[in-house]
UniProtKB/TrEMBL annotation:
SMART domains: PIPKc (SM00330)
Organism phylogeny: Eukaryota, Metazoa, Chordata, Craniata, Vertebrata
Keyword ATP-binding applies: yes
Catalytic activity annotation: 1,2-dihexadecanoyl-sn-glycero-3-phospho-(1D-myo-inositol-5-phosphate) + GTP = 1,2-dihexadecanoyl-sn-glycero-3-phospho-(1D-myo-inositol-4,5-bisphosphate) + GDP + H(+); 1,2-dihexadecanoyl-sn-glycero-3-phospho-(1D-myo-inositol-5-phosphate) + ATP = 1,2-dihexadecanoyl-sn-glycero-3-phospho-(1D-myo-inositol-4,5-bisphosphate) + ADP + H(+); a 1,2-diacyl-sn-glycero-3-phospho-(1D-myo-inositol-5-phosphate) + ATP = a 1,2-diacyl-sn-glycero-3-phospho-(1D-myo-inositol-4,5-bisphosphate) + ADP + H(+)
Gene Ontology MF term list: 1-phosphatidylinositol-4-phosphate 5-kinase activity; 1-phosphatidylinositol-5-phosphate 4-kinase activity; ATP binding
Protein name in UniProt: 1-phosphatidylinositol-5-phosphate 4-kinase
Predominant cellular place of this UniProt entry's protein: cytoplasm
One record GO biological process: regulation of autophagy
Record domain PIPK: where: 13-393
Lineage: superkingdom: Eukaryota
Keyword Thylakoid: no
């Protein structure tokens, strides 16, 4: 019974706001599983301080929205790769957001033997499908690779390996390796080369040349009279780093790697930017000022990775953040054109085994002992590779 004179109060109904849950929506189950698995493992690792560096995390999940009813996800050597991410200056939260916030995007580029090649939605990381043999080779070199990265303080032209996973969907196993993107998430690459230092059968095919951004090869580079104008000091520093990296690969008996080169033409990019802005202004006039804001290739759109990482709001033509675009190098002031070069060693999981020795013998018979074939022993390969790259830098 209420006390006399007590005022009646109306109890307000409380509304609880549920926290938004990641849905891992993707165009195919495999990518949804990758997003879910990467998200889960990073969260799990945040709770682990010390454990065996070869720990493998496996999951089997019953039905859940946007995921297949049954699947398996395994991350190999999670603590090793977490430590590598740290040494490469990549925060786990940023890595998690890049891989899981939106579905990875298929790339026009292909890995060796047509392997599937994706980039994260923000283009910061590359996700590449690899073979079980590649996974085995990664396990073979991982300890020495980690030690090398520690010794060079992460300052290397080698691929920055950030994670390795096995996904099983509908009974089919897929292996994926995540690396830092060699190219910029912001500066457009206008021309691209894959260079091995070999001249035998090293031209882009007609099919490749028909692509929007073809991958040209050694003979294409030489026939164009192309040079990378970096200046003496930058050339010296780059070649010292290259020599150290390549000597390490030779010690591991690795060969058949390439230098991936991307060229950003600053003047061309500025012209393209002006054309985009002109079109946007025209569209805005047609829509009586109701059109959306154009997204500048040099500016930072509101929901871009640059915004997430607290970048400055604006970058000028040809400018970049060296802590993010770690493989980038500006052309020298005296260069014929103002360019930005992106250069890194790729495809380092090919050992000089019995199969490669047989290929070397067959190519030598076909092309002659003096031919610059790509399949040679690691010491010869590294020497020729260094010489070729030295000759194209100026």
């Amino acid at each position: 019974v209420a006390a006399p004179g007590a005022s009646k109060t109306k109890t307000k109904k409380k509304h609880f706001v549920c926290q938004k849950v990641k849905l891992f929506r993707a165009s195919e189950p495999l990518l949804s599983v990758l997003m879910w698995g990467a998200n889960h493992t990073v969260k799990e690792l945040s709770l682990i301080s010390q454990a065996d560096h070869c720990t493998r995390i496996s999951f089997l999940l019953c039905p859940r929205e946007n995921l297949p009813s049954r699947f398996k996800f395994k991350e190999y050597c999670p603590l090793v790769f977490r430590n590598l991410r740290e040494r490469f200056g990549i925060d786990d939260q940023d890595y998690q957001n890049s891989v899981t916030r939106s579905a990875p995007v298929n790339s026009d580029s292909q890995g060796r033997c047509g392997a599937r090649f994706l980039t994260t939605y923000d283009r910061r990381f590359v996700i590449k499908a690899v073979s079980s043999e590649d996974v085995a080779e990664m396990h073979n070199i991982l300890k020495k690779y980690h030690q090398f990265i520690v010794e060079c303080h992460g300052n290397t032209l080698l691929p920055q390996f950030l994670g390795m996973y096995r996904l099983t969907v509908d009974g089919v196993e897929t292996y994926m390796v995540v690396t830092r993107n060699v190219f910029s998430h912001r500066l457009t690459v206008h021309r691209k080369y894959d260079l091995k230092g070999s001249t035998v059968s090293r031209e882009a095919s007609d099919k490749e040349k028909a692509k929007d951004l073809p991958t040209f090869k050694d003979n294409d580079f030489l026939n164009e009279g192309q040079k990378l104008h970096v200046g003496e000091e930058s050339k010296k520093n780059f070649l010292e780093k290259l020599k150290r990296d390549v000597e390490f690969l030779a010690q591991l008996k690795i060969m058949d790697y390439s230098l991936l080169v991307g060229i950003h033409d600053v003047d061309r990019a500025e012209q393209e930017e002006m054309e985009v802005e002109d079109r946007a202004e025209d569209e805005e006039c047609e829509n009586d000022g109701l059109g959306g804001n154009p997204i500048s290739s040099y500016g930072t759109p509101p929901d871009s990775p640059g915004n997430l990482l607290n970048y400055p709001r604006f970058f000028g033509p040809g400018e970049f953040d060296p802590s993010v675009d770690v493989y980038a190098m500006k052309s020298h002031e005296s260069a014929p054109k103002k360019e930005v070069y992106f250069m890194a060693i790729i495809d380092i999981l090919t050992p000089y085994d019995a199969k490669k020795k047989a290929a070397h013998a067959a190519k030598t018979v076909k092309h002659g002992a003096g031919a610059e074939i790509s399949t040679v022993n690691p010491e010869q390969y590294s020497k020729r590779f260094n010489e070729f790259i030295s000759n194209i830098l100026t």
